[in-house]
Please model this.
Amino acid sequence: MKLIAKRLQEAKHVVVFTGAGVSSESGIPTFRDALTGLWERFDPAQLATPEAFRADPSLCWGWYEWRRQKVLQAQPNEVHLAIAELAKHVSKLTVVTQNVDDLHERAGKGVIHLHGSLHSPRCIDCGNAHEAALPSGDLSKHGCRLEPPRCNSCEGYIRPGVVWFGEMLPDAPWTAGLTAADSCDLFFLIGTSGVVYPAAELPLRALGTGATVVHINPVRFEISSQEYFLQGPASAMQALTLEAFGR
Ligand code: BJW
Ligand code: ZN
Model:
């Protein structure tokens, strides 16, 4: 902790790269954790691909609206807040997230969304943005079907504004993520299983340009043999910020 706190004090550009583990303490389920992960109960191929949406729009839309409602009811946790606080202490902080919630923003720090957002639905046919109304219908349990709204321009179905498997990451966030990873001197990887590409390339890019990479996760696994590993929940980020900068 002391060594990493010192690197934090000296860093010119810090990148924080987050995954579902960071929002788990706000009550948002991760994807792959045993027993609690979203995909313990649902097959991603049935919900998180464009083919799945076209095959059963109501099942897919109902699942995403259930998740969007959960996010709207959730609050940023101490990790989101610690990351926002860190921005006040370092010369430059870029937050890159795979998360599709808005908890970093609500904690006060703008982020690069690699995998889109639950809050920016669009037409599956013409791509027009659709204003997200408050979720409605019976969303009491997950697995409920809900007919998606229709596009005002072409009558196509409205889809969630997230990036599904087999889809390209949106250009601007992906390029911004690469630029940040290539130009930082300290890179934190927090609460992600690191199995989804191309996002999982970012810590390796940072290592490749000589940055210090710090991995925080309750479950130990390596992304290379060169990163520092802090085993434990994402709240280690709060402890690090305190250690480096005090209150
Ligand atoms: C805590 C904690 C606490 C818990 N504190 N930590 C074969 C090889 C390589 C690649 C591929 C392949 N086959 C297919 C691909 C490509 C594919 C891919 O990567 N697949 C792999 C899974 C194999 N990628 C794509 O398709 C991407 N596009 C692409 O490649 O385009 C090019 C292309 C185009 C056309 C054809 C082919 C290629 C797009 C990927 C989009 C991913 N989208 C999702 C769903 C978003 C929508 C939704 O929300 O439903 O994004 S997948 C899902 O995983 C979601 C997440 O952002 C992403 C990452 O998950 P994350 O955040 O890591 O969560 P978990 O649950 O995995 O991990 C949580 C971690 O937290 C765990 O480690 C816990 O221990 C930890 N934790 N509590 C700290 N308190
Ligand atoms: Zn349309």
The mean pLDDT is 93. The first strand starts at residue 14 and ends at 18. The chain has two domains: 1-28+76-116+169-247, 29-73+122-159.
